[in-house]
């Protein structure tokens, strides 16, 4: 399956499940492919093909966006370099959940969550701690449970405390004692191992970008630079979030402006492009424009919001 087909299949599943989705054609060369929203649930999704190698730096933008809008970064795939992605299993890449497109279908269309997650050492599951307690109440000793599962007594105690269990151990316990112990997991909330994924820091050295960000900072905004995003930064205060682009009006920023307008509308946030000279243009593909000269004359950040509202 080609990556474009995977993106289309993912969008089809999400829309059937009641999500509104962004237009992926605007997000070419971004670190994510889809932004989806259903009520208060926001997903920032990257699709990966079987031969695609994913670098940590390429995910900075999707993580920053997900964090800024209180959403969930998620990866959807059909394979990986070390083998196929199993249906019903949640994997992790840099602390981000990764699952197959069939698992996504099961989760949102069939409402059947996965049971297994992958971690160093193999496949693991969450055990019903109450069920484990019932076994003990029936007089089954730690030693019997440990021998059945093929683990130590201390490991059984950790299972009772909520630690994930090896899939093979959990199956042995279920089969031997005739009790359902494996409980579903939520790939949108499961805490995966974070492989030191860092967000983008600083700017690319462009003098115009640096000056714009400094002015916004001086007004009281927090400016978080991004990479592999249609926008150059996430600009925020306690009340507002601005998808912020900086550049000169040319062919290259048209697609970026379209993507920013598309995402900001979906997420009900503001988008703005600061440009060297906007001429007579008030917006570009739906994204409001503010010139460098205009920004230099603004001292109250409320004025920026007024211009965005006027020109959106």
What is the compact description of this entry?
36% of the residues lie in helices and 23% in strands.
Commentary on this structure:
The chain has 312 residues and is an alpha/beta fold. The protein has three domains: 3-114, 3-Layer(aba) Sandwich (Trna Endonuclease, Chain: A, domain 1), CATH 3.40.1350; 122-183, lambda repressor-like DNA-binding domains (434 Repressor (Amino-terminal Domain)); 207-311, Trna Endonuclease, Chain: A, domain 1, CATH 3.40.1350. It contains eleven helices and 16 strands. It has helices at 3-16, 60-68, 101-108, 129-137, 142-149, 153-160, 167-177, 207-218, 251-267, 292-296, 301-311; strands at 20-21, 34-38, 41-48, 72-77, 89-93, 96-100, 116-119, 122-127, 165-166, 182-183, 222-225, 233-236, 241-247, 270-275, 283-284, 287-291. Strands 1, 2, 3, 4, 5, 6, 7, 8, 9 and 10 form a ten-stranded mixed sheet that branches. A six-stranded mixed sheet has the order 11-12-13-14-16-15, sandwiched between helices. Strand 3, helix 2 (60-68) and strand 4 (72-77) form a beta-alpha-beta unit. The radius of gyration is 24 Å and the shape is elongated. The relative contact order is 0.11. The model has no long low-confidence stretch (mean pLDDT 90).
Features of this protein?
3 domains, 434 Repressor (Amino-terminal Domain), single chain, 16 strands, Trna Endonuclease, Chain: A, domain 1, about 300 residues, alpha/beta, ten-stranded mixed β-sheet
């Amino acid at each position: 399956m080609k990556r474009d087909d995977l993106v289309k299949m993912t969008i089809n599943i999400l829309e059937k499940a009641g999500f509104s989705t962004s237009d992926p054609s605007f997000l070419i060369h971004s670190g994510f492919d889809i932004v989806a929203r259903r009520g208060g649930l926001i997903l920032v999704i990257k699709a990966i093909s079987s031969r695609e190698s994913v670098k940590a730096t390429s995910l900075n933008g999707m993580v920053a966006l997900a964090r800024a809008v209180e959403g969930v970064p998620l990866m959807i795939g059909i394979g990986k370099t070390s083998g196929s992605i199993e249906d019903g299993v949640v994997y992790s890449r840099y602390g981000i959940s990764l699952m197959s497109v069939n698992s996504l279908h099961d989760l949102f269309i069939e409402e059947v969550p996965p049971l297994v997650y992958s971690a160093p050492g193999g496949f693991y599951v969450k055990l019903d701690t109450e069920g484990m307690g019932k076994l003990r109440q029936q007089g089954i000793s730690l030693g019997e449970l440990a021998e059945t599962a093929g683990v130590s007594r201390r490991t059984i105690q950790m299972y009772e405390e909520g630690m994930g269990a090896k899939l093979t151990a959990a199956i042995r316990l279920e089969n031997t004692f005739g009790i359902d112990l494996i409980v579903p997991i939520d790939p949108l909330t499961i805490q995966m191992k974070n492989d030191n994924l860092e967000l983008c820091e600083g700017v690319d050295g462009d003098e115009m970008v640096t000056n714009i960000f400094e002015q916004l900072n001086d007004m009281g905004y927090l400016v978080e630079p991004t990479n592999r995003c249609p926008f150059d930064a996430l600009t925020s205060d306690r009340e507002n979030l601005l998808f912020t682009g900086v550049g000169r009006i040319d062919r290259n920023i048209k697609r970026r402006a379209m993507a920013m307008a598309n995402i900001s509308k979906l997420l009900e946030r503001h988008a703005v492009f600061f440009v060297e000279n906007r001429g007579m243009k008030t917006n570009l593909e739906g994204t409001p424009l503010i010139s460098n000269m205009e920004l230099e004359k603004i001292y109250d950040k409320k004025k920026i919001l007024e211009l965005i509202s006027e020109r959106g």
